[in-house]
Amino acid sequence: xxxxxxxxxxxxxxxxxxxxxxxxxIIVVMSFILGSILFLLKPVSIGSILENLLYxxxxxxxxxxxxxxxxxxxxQKWVYSLNGINLKAKHSMFLAxxxxxxxxxxxxxxxxxxxxxxxxLFVNSILFGSVFAFAxxxxxxxxxxRIKLFKSVIIAIIQPLLMIGMLIITSFLNNIExxxxxxxxxxxxxxxxxxxxxxxxxxxxxxxxxxPMKKNLGFGVLEILxxxxxxxxxxxxxxxxxxxxxxxxxxxxVGVASFxxxxxxxxxxxxxxxxxxxxxxxIGGSNMPTILADRFDAFTMVAHGPSTHDFNPVSRxxxxxxxxxxxxxxxxxxxxxxxxxxxxxxxxxxxIGIQFFKNGTIMLSTFAPSGSDDIEYAVGLAAMIESQKExxxxxxxxxxxxxxxxxxxxxxxxxNPELFQLLDTIKLINPLDLEHEIxxxxxHTDLGxxxxxxxxxxxxxxxxxxxxxxxxxxxxxxxxxxxxxxxxETIFNAVKDLDIDEIEVMTTDxxxxxxxxxxxxxxxxxxxxxxxxxxxxxxxxxxxxxxxxEAGTNTERILNLKTFxxxxxxxxxxxxxxxxxxxxxxxxxxxxxxxxxxxIWIFLF
Length: 605
Hints:
Blueprint: H1 3-8, H2 20-41, H3 49-81, H4 89-117, H5 122-144, H6 149-156, H7 158-174, H8 184-217, H9 221-234, H10 238-246, E1 248-261, E2 266-273, H11 288-293, E3 299-302, H12 319-331, E4 338-339, E5 343-347, E6 350-357, E7 360-366, H13 377-391, E8 395-400, H14 417-427, E9 436-445, E10 461-468, E11 471-478, H15 487-494, E12 502-507, H16 528-544, E13 547-563, H17 565-604
Parallel strand pairs: 2-3, 7-8, 11-12
Antiparallel strand pairs: 1-2, 1-13, 4-9, 5-6, 6-7, 9-10, 9-13, 10-11
Helix pairs in contact: 2-3, 2-4, 3-4, 3-7, 4-5, 5-6, 5-7, 5-8, 5-17, 8-17, 13-14
């Protein structure tokens, strides 16, 4: 698996948390259950099972539930009063719920252990659980809220202290046996010492994983994590400032095919920028296909040009440079009312569908049904230069159809066999004369409100049908990040009865859909039949929209586009990948050692 696959796989940890009221209800129920189980294991007095259940439930609510409700209600205010970020009401309440559950489960396990060793560990188990709750609180608050360590400790310690305080009160009121043999002050000191041990473990772990990224890129894991969460919660673009500081300016290419009506107005644009719509969510260029298309009044399809994560724009404002290049290409566009038919060529795994227009071509490249990911810019540039030499046309718009997802395959890079297969396919192309009139029809649908849960981005589905000399070719574009392997061929089979002769399906490679636990989330993994129904509908509607047009092609340079850059993109991905790999070793080792020391300190001293 590639480093990019490893990083993309982190999206499986993205979750939508329950509302604050839901967490509050769970706290009440869960605390009652935890207390009941504890008192079944360690009855306070000889009584019936029902009495122990009710008495224990009340104990659990007071010791575990009330502190969780108090901190769940106040942690958000504490965080924002200290200029922190990310901890909304639902996050605060859910954090309190998880911490309470951890404390309760640890308490139960400790009490069970006491039965096996014939020692009363009831109180010490609750203390041990409280320390665990502190450790989890400090890890979450420090790593996500942008608050300094000392201030994070103050917020994180509130819930455990309240738990211990409630335990002291209930102990004195109810005369629980063998309570606090060291005394109240000794018990509190024991808890503080144990908390410091966990704090040192967490501090050491964070510093180890922070240092590589801090050294290589100038910002640390906590920064990128907290600002990413802020982006997911509130749509903030603060994270783009981090990327902007380390970004690299590049020059790249955009290909434009324009179809204008006979009255001179533009009916449709087909754009293929060699810019990658990443990295994730709405960060950088992730929503570029929609943002760029919305800048033009005409029906606009923004396909995926040859590019990888190296060419991710560092911020959304960089997209205006792509728009400027497209408008410049339109200003010098030459049109003709003639075009060629659509024809396919293939060599080994490489497939190209090509159609000739004024001064250039649209070349749709794919390695389907074999799996593939992004075509690297250098590979695409080599293919475009080869096409100029072999075909003799100046403006060849190369599209990476991005329609055969295989997570294990990776992209098409210089030196890969697929590069030479692509070049060899271009050598097979025979130039065609522009002999026939053109008609174009378009249709756009949001697929009935489908969204990222179905692998569909904001632009939904766009279809353009080009009719030349009686041949109708459907250009079908999903606003998605790749397509499930084999789904392209399923679509082909499903539209055979429609009044078209050729079809190609493409995806924009938008990374707005990569914010679910589905990882890459390609289209075609769910709702397959419904999506195909919309494809059929879009083709039929585009056919109804057919009208005579003139067409032209042009390519233009995008100047000084600030992107992640070849160096920083590789550095970022490899650093994150290595941090994940190292953390799988260091995290268990660090925390197991800390747990052992805390266990010995609480139970044996």
